[in-house]
Amino acid sequence: MTVHGEVETTYEADLDLDLPTVLEDAVGAVDAVARIGEPGHLSLDATYYDTDALDLAATGITLRRRSGGEDAGWHLKVPHREDEKVEKQVPLSAARHRVPAALRRLVWARTLGEDLAPVVRIETERTTYDLTDSRGASVAEVADDRVRATRLDDHDDVEAVLVWREVEAELTDAGPEVLQELDRSLTAHGLQRAHGAARSKVLRVLGDGVPSPSVAPSSTAAAAAEVVLHHLHEQIEQLRTYDPLVRLDRPDSVHRMRVAARRLRSALKTFGPLLPAEQSESLRADLKWLGEHLAPARDAEVMLERMERVAEQEGDDTPGGQLARDVARRLHERYRIHHEDVVGSLDSERYQALVRQLVELTDAAATTPAGRLPAADVLPARVRRAFRSLRRSVATAAPGEDGADPGAHAADLHDADLHEVRKKAKRARYAAEALSPSFGEPAVRLAQAMEQVQADLGEHQDTVVLRTWLHEQAQEASPASAFALGRWYAAEEQRGREAEERFTRSWRAARKKKLRRWLS
Predict the structure, then answer these.
(1) 242 shares a domain with 180
(2) One domain, residues 201 and 254
(3) pLDDT for the residue numbered 249
(4) Any idea of the CA torsion for 243, 247, 250, 256, to the nearest 10 degrees?
């Protein structure tokens, strides 16, 4: 199996477009491109697979079996960032017409184990143009596709066969700025960027059959549970979105999935009285279990990023730089071990049961009597309660910082207590964010204030975790290495003190009454 990122832009094209002339005119304005290669020709035949409900298409995931070209095989493409997808390929020999098990696992969070069957066949006559730099190295490829698509699932209300033409520009060995420059030039010379469903061949064919995302309630008169369930639905979607990206080990994916699990757990605690108690408590326990599996990988990832910056600061040819790189290598291995544990947890029956229960929670929409009351009558009190819990934690961690004595110093603060404050600040932030679509700017401003408190304490906690690791490493190091580790420990200690000082300022701003008037 192979995995690689794909960064491309798709354009609409008339059937009579003279693309070679457009390219000649366009690439002259792109500094990175010196030459257009001779055209190549390919005949591609792809069958796309999905569930009956088109669960993959609804989230931009494409799964196909393609013949023709150098990369014939099974292809799974998962959206990562704008104009970027992560592609995983499996050879055709791995399976004939049944989706390989490795790919079924990657999309399980979307399919929930439902069968994957052919939905669209797309035949493409492709002409490719390789764009190279002054050294002859490829920087991008432009593909001119003439497409014939056939609907394979049973839908009498849609057109069975579609024919169109499109152009794709894809990076090969260059930075995203090259694609941006090429895009500006191509659009200036008459090409139009594809939007919406037209950005994907299979989505263009499936059209209105693809489920649309739900819309958040925008009124405080909506039922309280409706507001909360929509927020839960959004976080469940985030969890399911990052599942395949975590499995594919994409940057920041473990962090994003962990945040989604935390938001869900926090919302279930804050807004629990609006939902069936037994269901909420069970889900919170399983979300805590998931977070405990994600946390070690994320901690290792954060420490690794920090030590890579330290190595860069120390320099390549210094003993300190060599030691920092050695520490970074150990952290990378630590991350790999923890990441394998994460993937194992995502393949477990407990995780699969958790995802199913989360989906059922928002689909069934069971609520308590309080959940059927207007949002304005119920939800502000839940946010107010979360803020009061935060304020009590601040009073414990930093006596005086709860408002009675603004003169408390960062030196009085304790790591464990500050970590508890951080968790309470996140809960207050997440509660306010859940209400932002319905309550508007007041909820947004409170969430932003809580986010700053959380960010300052988050950096402090990062230093605590790294200091613990550096101390452990120093116990078995040589005197020279222990001295360097001690320098870095001291630097992290200073970074932690600075974060504490920022926290005292951000908390003073966050506790202002004007941010909470809407909660009365």
Answers:
(1) no
(2) no
(3) 94
(4) 30
400: left (phi > 0), else alpha (psi -120 to 50), else beta?
left
User: What HEC string does 241-252 produce?
Assistant: HHHHHHHCCCCC
Q: Strand (E) positions, 313-376?
A: none
**CA dihedral for 476, 480, 484, 486, sign (positive or negative):** positive
Residue 404 scores a pLDDT above 50: no
The whole-angstrom separation of Cα 250 and Cα 31 is 30
Tell me the two tokens of residue 284: 């919170």
Judged by DSSP in three states, 117 sits in: strand
How many domains, the chain? 2
Domain shared by 377 and 455, yes or no: yes
* Integer Cα distance of 411 and 413 in angstroms: 6
**Which tokens sit at 203?**
């989505």
**Token pair of 142 as six digits:** 């432009």
Could you tell me the residue range of the domain that residue 299 belongs to? 224-519
Q: Which of 183, 209, 235 is the last residue of a domain?
A: 209
**Domain boundary residue among 209, 241, 269?**
209
Phi first, then psi, for residue 11 (nearest 5°) are -125, 145
- Distance CA(366)–CA(272), nearest Å, equals 12
Cα distance between residue 13 and residue 11, in whole Å: 6
User: 21: buried, middle or exposed (CB in 10 Å: 19+, 13-18, 0-12)?
Assistant: exposed
Whether 263 and 351 map to the same domain: the answer is yes
Pairing of strands 73-81, 62-67: antiparallel
Find tokens 């473990």 and name the residue: 254
Q: Are residues 328 and 236 in the same domain?
A: yes
Same domain, 189 and 237: no
* Domain of residue 166, CATH code: 2.40.320.10
Q: For the segment 159-180, what is each residue's pLDDT rounded down to a tens digit?
A: 678 999 999 999 888 888 888 8
pLDDT at 209: 82
The separation between CA 468 and the C-alpha centre of its own chain, rounded to angstroms, equals 28
Q: Indicate the burial class of 2 (C-beta count within 10 angstroms; 0-12, 13-18, 19 or more).
A: exposed
Distance of alpha carbon 312 from alpha carbon 242, whole angstroms: 30
- Cβ–Cβ under 8 Å, residues 246 and 399: no
* Alpha-carbon dihedral sign for residues 24, 28, 30, 34: positive
Whether 427 contacts 267, CB under 8 Å: no
User: For residue 470, with 0-12 CB atoms within 10 Å meaning exposed, 13-18 middle and 19 or more buried, which class applies?
Assistant: buried
Half-sphere exposure of residue 389, counting CA atoms within 13 Å on the CB side? 19
The answer to whether the predicted template modeling score (pTM) of the entire model surpasses 0.90 is no
Asked if residue 219 belongs to a domain, the reply is no
Buried b / exposed e across 199-209, counting CB within 10 Å, b at 16+? bbbbbbbbeeb
Query: Is residue 242 scored above 60 in pLDDT?
Result: yes
Q: Compute the distance between CA of residue 432 and CA of residue 271 in angstroms, rounded to an integer.
A: 11
Strand extents, DSSP E, 13-61: 35-36, 40-50
